[in-house]
Structures are given as C-alpha cells and as structure tokens.
Amino acid sequence: MVAHAEIRVVHLGGSKINFREPVITNDSRFLLCASGESVKVYSSSSEECVHDLQGHTDLVSGIVRNPSNHLQVYSCSADGTVRLWDFTDGILIKTFIIGYPIYSIYVSENHGGVVFVVVPMANDKSSELFQLVAVHLPLSGDQEVEARELSAVLCDVSPSGAASFGRKGEYIAAVKGLQLEVFFFKNQKSHRFFLKPGNKKGAKNAFTCVSCHPKEDCIATGHEDGKIRLWRNFNQKKEYTYSTLHWHHGAVNTLQFTPEGTNLLSGGIESVLVQWHYTQENQKDFLPRLGGAITHIAVSPDGSLFCTSHSDNKITIIQSCVKVSAIIQGLVKGEGVRTDLTIDPRSKALVLNGKPGHLQFYSLHRDKLLYNLDIVQQEYIHEEGLDQFEVVKAAFDTRGDWLATVEERTQKGSELEINLKLWAYDEQTQSFMLNTTVTAPHEDQIIAMCFSPSPEITMLVTISFDGHFKAWLLADHSDTKEGASWSCDFVGGYHHLKPGCCCFSADGSLLAVGFQEVVTVWSPSWELLTTLSQPPGAIRELCFGRLSCSKYLLGTSTKNQLCCWNLLTCSLEWSTPVDVSLLQADPLSENMAAFCSQSGCSDLFVFKPGEPRPLYSQKALCTGKVQRAVFAPRDQMLESCEEHAQWLNRSQLYFLTQHMDLMTFSTKTEEDRLLASSKLLMVDDSVAVTPFYLLLGKHRQQQEALTNPMAERIQLPQGSIAIKELLYTPAHVLPSASFLCSMFVRSLLISSSSASEEKEPVEEEMESEEEDSEGEAELRDARQDLGGSAAWGPGEELGAPALTKAQERELRRVKHFDHSWLSSVLEC
Amino acid sequence: MASFKSTKIPIYPKLGEKVTPDTLYWKNYKAPVQIKEFGAVTSIDFSSLAPHNYAVTASTRIHIYGPFSTEPVKTFTRFKDTAYSGKFRSDGQLLVAGCEDSVVRLFDVSGKVALRVFKGHTKGVHVTDFTSDCYHILTGSDDYTCRLWDIPNSTELTSYKEHTDYIRCGTTSKLNRDIFITGSYDHTLRVFDARVEKSVMTMDHSQPVESVLLYPSEGLLVSAGGRYVKVWDLLKGGQPLVSLKNHHKTVTCLSLSSNGQRLLSASLDRHVKIYNTTNYKVVHNFDYAASILSLALAPDDESIVVGMTNGVLSIKHRKSPEEKREMVGKQRMQPVYRIFVKGRNYVPKKDDFLVSKPVKSHLAKYDKQLKKFNISKALDTALESWRRNRKPEITVAVMKELDRRGTLKNALAGRDEQNLSQLLNFLIGNVVDPRFTPVLVTATEMILDIYQAVVGQSSVVDRQLVRLQELVEREVDYQQDLLEVLGMLDTLFATSLPRKEVPCPGSSRPNGLAEGSLGAPGPQLQAA
Question: Is the dihedral of CA A789, A790, A795, A796 positive or negative?
C-alpha cells in the first residue's frame, strides 16, 4: 500500500472494542479489551486508555487472565499466536505460535500451563467447523516459542465464547446449535444433551451461550427465544434435570455467574442487564436502558465490578450494586454510517451518526469520543424488526453556530417520515440546542443539504428526490416570544428533473444544483443565472474551487467524466474521462481530492482545478470504493517542503473504506512528532495519563519532596569508617565519648560534604539552610550533653580571626550541610 | 443510565391569525350588549363631556344613553319624519339633528323641546354638525346644498350649491371655525371655507361618498365610499395618499381610535376593520350580525358602539384591568400538584453532610404506562375524554409512538362496544385534520382490519362506521377539487410569468428555457 515513503495510509483508531468479552483485572483497576489488532488497557475508574498492547498482526480474538500470575494476560489472535502480556507496564512477555487462526481462548486455574483455544477443524481456513484444543505451553525462556503440543478436547464448537469451565475446572461445557456438550477431564468423557428445535409458538430452542456455576455443579445456558435453562445432575446421561428462567423476549446473548455463584447475570438485545439471584430464582434486579444490545458480560474476580459490552461499541462498567460507574465508548462505525463525514468547526471533531438516533462527535486528534448528541429524542425500543428513526444527514454552517440534521424512518407500507431539525449552538451549555423542527420538509427523501458560507445570511439548502430544492432561512421573530426560528424561503426546481447534488461557492454568492445532466447556477436572489451541461451522464457531485481557483466549478458525472467549468466564461475549461466516486475540496486550500474506483481498487488524485498536473496521486489506496471522505483542518500547520506532501500541510484527509475502516494519510514529519509527543507523555504510572495529570503530578512530586525531608535524612553514611570504628570496636578500648564525638563528626562532615553540594539542587538551598539552622541548634544541644569540650565551637571561631580562605570555604560548606542525621544517630 | 425519554408531543403551529399586540388590545372587550332600536341606526355620537353619553339616531327618535346604561337616559321624539345625524356640541350642552322633513332642530340636552328650528332646506337633511366656535351649524341636504346657520339668530349664513347630488356626509374642522368638508353622492369631496364664496378644494373619490373623517391634526382626510376607503393629504392640495379596498360591500362609517393610531371602518358587509394608520394594513377585524350603518368609539376606546340596519345597537365595553387580572389569576391558581417546600431554602452549614437526591423527573401517566410496556392502558389514558377533546395532539402522539413500537394493533384490539365507539368518535373528529391524518389513517385501517368480523353486531358502531365512510368520501372529493384548482392556478402562473432567455455557453449544448417553479405549498413548520 505504500507508494511514497513519506506519505502513508494509516488506520485511524476507533476499532471495535466490543468484539470479545473484556477482562477485568484482579484488583479491578484495569479493563482489557480486544480492539482490532491490539489489546487496550483502560482504567476502570477514569475511563482513559492506559496502554495499547500492540504486537498481533491480525484481529485479536480473545483475552484471558493468566491464572498463575495476576499481572499477566493471554491474548489470542487470528494470526495464530497466543501472547502473554504484562498489562501494567504494557510489555509483551512471550509469544506462543500455534500456527492456526485462533477464535477463542479459555483457561482454568486447575489446568496449569495449558490454554484451551478454538481453532478450525480442518487445516484449511475456509472450514466452517471448529474444535476446542488444549495447548500445552512449553516452558522456555525464549521470547517466541512454538507450541505444537495440541490435544483435541471437543469437536464442533462454535467459534465465539460458547464454552465455560465448570467447578474447579473438572469439566468444560460448550454449546452449539441445539446441543450442549459437557466434557469431563477426569474420565475424559463427554456427555451431550439435545433439545428439540421447538417451533411451536415461535419458540427457538437453539443455544446461544453458556456459563458454569463456579461452586456447584450447575450449567446455565441461554437460548434464542430468551429462555435461560439451569442444568443440574448432568454427570448422568439420563437423569439430568433442568429448570427454566424466562424474562428476555429476544435471544439471550450472554450469561455470566458472579465469582461466588450467588448471582447470574444475563443480557440480550433489550439492553437490560438482569441479575438473577441463584437461590431465589424469581427474584431479579434490572439495570435498564444501557444503550445498545448487550453482547458480552464480564465480572471481576472479586465480584465487585461487572462490565457489559454493547453492540454500539461501548463498554459499561457497573458496580455490583447495579449502578453504572463508567462508560468506555468507542467510535461507532459499520453499516449504519449514513451521514457524510463532517467536521464540527468548533471542536474540530469528526461528526457522523453513531448510536441509533444520535450523532457522535469524535476527536480525531485524541482518538476519543467526545460526546453523543441525541437527535431523535425518542425512547429507543430495543427490538428486532422495528423501523426506527435514523439520522441520515448532518451539516454544520461555517462557524459552527448551526447544525442541521435530517432523520428519517421508512416503514413498510406507509409513507416516509422525515424530520429536518436545526440546532443552535449554546455557549452556556457548550452543546447544540434544538431550535426548529420541520416535519416533512420534502415529499421525498432528502439527498443532500448544505449551509450557505456567506457571513451575512444564515441559509440552508436542501435538495430532495421530489424534484425540488428548498432554501431555509433563519427568520427572527423578535416580536413574538419564540425567538428566531427557521422557515422556508424559496422552493426551486428545474423542468421537474430530480436534483442530485448541491454546492455553494466559497463566498456564498452562487449556488450550483445538479439536475440530472444539467448544472443550474443560482444567485442569492433566486435567479437562475446559467445552466451548464456536459452530457452524457447525470451529475453526481459538484464542487466549487476555493481561494484562487474560485472561478472554477467541478463536477463529476456518472459516465466517467470529471469536468471543470470556468464560471467567468461559462464554458468548459477541461474534462477528463475518469470515474470519480468521491470529490472533496479542502476548505483551507485550493486542493481537491478525487477518489476514483478502478477494477476493485480506489485511487486518489489531489489536484488544483487551475493546474493540469495532479499534485499527488496514489494508486490502489484500498480495496473497494471509498465511501466517504473529509478534509479536517489541522491544529498546527505542518512545515513539509516535500512537494507531493505539501497538500497535507493545512488539513488532513480522512476517508471511510468499503469495510468502514477510517483511514488517513500521514507524513513522516508528523509521525516523528507524534512519536516525540508520545514519549513525552510516557509515565510509569498505572493510572490514566492526561496532560493535566502530567502537570499536576510533577508539581505534586515536587511538593512531596519539599515537605518530606525525612526522605533525605534516611540516607545515613552507612559505609563510613567512623561508624564502623564506633560500632565494631569494643567499648572498653574506646577513648572517652566526648573525644570520639568531635573526631567522628569532623570526619563525617568533610568527607560527604563535597558530594552533597553537587547533589543539592539550587532551588532547595533556601530550604536546606533553614534546616541547617535547626540542625545547628540540635548540634549545640548535643554538644552540651556531651560535656561541652568540643575541639571547636562558636566562641573559638570568633576568637580565631585569622582563618584561611580554604578554611572559610570549608566552614561554609559545613554550615550548609544537613546535620539532622545526627539526632537520629543519637537516638539509636 | 439514560432515563426514559418521554413521548414527544409535537407543537403544531397555531393556525389562523397571529397574536399581535393589536389583537390582544381589540380582543380585550366584553361580550356586546345589544339594544333594539325602532329602526336602522344611522348615527351615533359621543358627547365629549365627562360621563360620555352618546346620542343614537334611529328612525324618528334620538336616544341618549349613559356609558353603562341599557335604557336611554333621554329621548328626543319631536321629529315628524326619520331623524338623521344627531350630534353633540363640543361642550356637550346642545344637540343638533337633521330630519327627512328638511327641518334642522337644535335641542338642549337637558330639555325636551327644540330650542331652535332651522328651516330652509328643501329636502331631507342627512348631515349636521357644529363648527369649532360653537356658534354655527353646518348642514348638508339631499337638495344638493350645504348651509351654515347662526345659532343665536337661527338665520342662514351661507349656502353652497356646488355638489350635484345628495350630500350624505360632512365634517367641520376642529381647529378652524370656517372650514368644513362635505362628501356627496356625486363622488366628490369638497372643502369649503366660510370666508370664501366657493369651495377651496375638490377631491374625486370616484364612488358615492358615505363618510368623511378628519385626522386630529387635520392634515389628512379619510373618505369612505363604495368599497373603498381613501386617504387624502390636505396639505398637498388634496393628493390621494392611499386607497384601501378591504371590504366587499359599501363602507358606511369611519372612526378613529382615541390615540389616532388606528382607523376603523364599518361596512355593509358586516365587518369592522381596524387599520394601522402608519402602514394602512388591517390589524384586526370585528364581525357583526347585520350590515353596519354607524360606528363610534368612546373616548379612550372604553367602548365600541355599532348601529346596524336591523335596528340593533351593539355596545362592547372594554374589560377593566381588575377583570383582566382576575382572569390571569384564575389560570395561575391551578397548581397541578403541590411540592413539599419545607426546608427548601435551607442553606447547608459548614459541617453538614450533603446527600444528593436524584432529581425525579415527572412523567405523564401515559408515559409511565409506555415505560412499563402497558400499551393498551397507555392508549386508554391517551383516549380519556378531556385529553381526547382538548388535546387531540397528545392522543395522536401516543398512537404514533405505539405505531413506532409496532404495537398499535395490539393496543387497538380487544375493545368492547363502548370503547370502540369512543375510538371511532375520536377518529371521526380528527381523521381529516391534516396534522393528524398520517397517523390516524393507519389507525383506522388497523381498526377496520381488527373489527371487520364483528361489523353488524352493534348499531352504534355501524352508524359510526358509516359516518366515517361518508367523511372520508367527502374529504376525497375536497382534495380532488383542490387539486383541480391548483392545476388552474399553475396554468395562470405559468402564463403570467415572464419568459427569460438564459445565457447558454457555447461549448455546452443549450438546454432549453429555465424556469424556477415557484409557489409550492409550504411545509408545516414547528418551532421547538
């Protein structure tokens, strides 16, 4: 993919964090989850990402705690390796190469040195059958170890999370389809239990998930029809029993026993966490409205925290008293992205629709979701097969004061419901407030909308399949109480043709609307100025040039044409036969980016409308069509002098591929800078690192050092000869204590003073001087205690006028030195 | 976690007229008091003296009413024939009236017999007025003449015979004792100066003039005749300023509101229109039961008195401020539920431990039921009679919410006869309301689906179903008619729109003519 050494196409975060069950560490401080090709370590209290464990080369498909070391986790990946990590430091400890793509991983405390992984049954990767194998991890000091000692445990298991270890690891239960299989390790035998398909009353008996009670012989299974069955007595083949719990109306997605087995947690599409009391099964607690469908539940080993993964790429951390304590939200992507990628001019955040009925504001620079804006403002009913309102369009005006959104709901057999909503930015709450709702703004779907960039007028233009375009104006009704609201100002059309795209010129003086093959250019007073056309092929996209190229209008048509019209002469300037799927103008420069799809790949051309040669081109950017793209202005301008990288100086280009991966272009200089900043942020602490913490933490450390001089005091000159002499010589051979003291003191002071002066920072001099005075007072006391026959004293000092310079210096040094240790010595 | 989001009740834009300060002002009158007179009320005049009595001329009598009396305070009956134009003098002491028998009579307000009788006209006198110096009387008559009379001597001073048709209106200047204006059926307005032999100014109204009115500044003159109200600038030599055509029958009377900011015109089309005198836009409109002949406003707009052809005198009094406050107070005195306020303004002390209580959001009853998925109960709550009748938008919003949840059919099913007829009643009342139609049509279809098996078992329900069918059929007809009209209008617009050639660039092929389709019906707007 790398064509130029300097410009690379890179993935931008926001991978799925709900792919597999997250893991809570033993001390409940961290939460680990698989996120694309890496494992992310979040702080469970502050929701911040602490580490990103990178090393896998393919999708990470499972994480488990190392049962023998609570500071380590195993992760497995589709690249065929199991890796052992130290998550507190974010270090890769070991890599075990299995050789097959791994889909799940399980461990048990009672099976030391063994991990259980799910791998494809046959060696060919296209196989649909999976098996659970036990892998004996070889004890070797090497970083990379090949683990070839595999032994099959269960055949035909489902690839994801449908197996669980029973009491003390004596058996493992796995479900698939209509079959529950329990494998006993003791006698290496497996029991299978089948259910009928059960089609009456729409009941679907298929298993979906399984969880084993940690203390008793009990297996809980979840089913398609929302039932939970508790299996007991399953070590006999015939006399097994089961009881049924039923609350969920949709399939039970996940089940989990708490570590003590007192509660059973279940979740499904209703997005309600249900806590069943194990002994009193009719008692249950609910935690409703968690957002999206619950896909996984994890419980911390001490049972104090639960966490639930949701289908909207979110992890909710819940305290055991069924109270939400934190939410980790990732970027919501996937099939549901229907709005264009837009940039909020205020926060510079990427805006697209995320959770159902919401717009998400995603900070690109921090790779973090800022907030969700509720657009639909309706209770979301978590049920399959319902037609819900979806946000399909969003647009900001140039200053970010107004946001326009379109939501629509298509229902079988009834007419389309469309709402156009206009949101005003509220300075006080720092968010968007609903100003006007227009129900049924058009008779058909709205294809596109754009705000007029002119500073004098706040105007929105919407175009629709009903053949009209409408201009909406902000009208100030200051005489009535309601304040400013929006109303329709103009309805335009052209020969009853369906419009396809619209675009304002950079100064807002022209509006171009593409009607099939014809481009109509309108003035702000709604006069049709001119029509442009370059048949054949309907106009797909229109884009005005910016800055020095503002006299050009670019259009792409369905019949592989990119045309550039000169608006001054109203004539075609140039056109090239190229199939442009997406045309995007950089708001800060003259540059245009055109994504072309050719033979299953996408190419990028960056060019200026006025110049015939493209500034930059990259072939085979990604497979498939580029879905959406946006130029995001940079915080700081880059100073790249490379000619083909200059177009990235002012803004960065982001795009969504066919697989809904968010990608961007990065240059070498930028990567260097990022690297430098990440080093700057590197802190050994385990808690979340924010710039704020860095600032405050440094300050606090300094304060601690200042307020706690004990720390320095402890450093006693252990190794000095004087001490040895004092301690190891028998007492009866020693001279008198008073004589010894002075000698001892002097020897010590001089020997360590030179070193201490170097160590002491300048700013602490004041502090130490104060301490010195204290120390001196103590010294004086001590001398009096000892009999006052010291060899030197203040009186003598004053009395001896002729001191050499060297002596003076020495004295000052002595004065500066910390004498406090003496008191501690004396205390001994 | 996120709390329950209550059902969104859309706020529909208020249809009809907008609430402006004018409508508030002019709506602030009590229900009219109606008094039956003996014949058509041709003239009403307020006395400028304190109690502001008013003289009502109808048939052969002049009644004087007190400001709040429904019985006449005084009656003048000494007319041989139909009396016209009873007018008070500016000091409120004297009253003058013309008569069909061509005699002009002057009364003392406290007396009964005419003080003076002015004879000289040969036909009925429809116009009488006092000049501003209070010593002269102006009269205008069907004999085409207008005359000035001296009150002390009861002699005729001057006579002008310039009009060529009946003189039916006239007014004197309040600033100059010599100036007066008359309007005649010969379509002209004439300004006379008593010091000059001939009229000094003539204006052509081009309709028989029914009423003239001078502004307090006397710079502007308003005349009414035919369906038009015209304003003339006297200072510019009688230049027409505006011509208003807001009535569809002859305008009979003009009046100014007390501050001179609003002009009122009454017409045979039974409307009184109120104009803003700065932009001459209609700001308000009163409807009356019969054609209006006369109109007068009490000083300070305390009451509006209107006389009609059927002899009914309608008096509207302004609501007093106390009454107004009472109304507001009544609305405010209805707290829905009381909040326990003890300790509400307690300021926590230094070592108090604060326990924050989660703010409980109040949910409507149907929302509570929806939260618990009690769909039938929620629909029942939404269909409660007061809600159904007063706030149909809530009922419809709940139905829409149920439809969104895919459970409307379940909620509608399983109802007994009474319940069903209630539901059908609601549908009959609201299904053709354009705001509710999309939702209610779905609901109606569902009801028909569900209950088609039991059709014919209940006569009440059957009758309602038939009514519903008729309603829908009628609505379809209306829509068809409207579409036809729309088509006609489109053709008219298309022909009247100027065709403009659009410059077509040479390189691109010409694409025919450009025309923006204008005037599509505006969508529903709703302010949040």
Answer: positive
